[in-house]
Amino acid sequence: MDTEKAREVIVGFIREKVHEANAGGVVLGISGGVDSALAAYLAAEALGKDKVLGIHLPELNLTPAEDVLDATEVAHRLGIDFRAIDISEMIRAYLANIPDGDKATPHAKGNLKARIR
Asked: Are 82 and 92 in a shared domain?
């Protein structure tokens, strides 16, 4: 695989799609993992660091501190704007306002977290 060619194709694709959408930039979820870090690097290359906003959505006392630090480090190295927003209260509010929310299974709660993010 020609990784340089793959990078060029992906960067071009990002530029094209953002242009087609008539968008001024992108907002990316940065989890602290490899996939989102790569997406952030490619977006910053394609659009410029001033056109990328990184968002990290941890859950207080559940998201490993390492993930928060890794996401922050990615944004710092890229020089992109970055926000970390705790979603704990949003999760509690949803569960408090849906029927039997207090009885939600771990699977249902995980699904809700993904939808909030």
From this structure: no
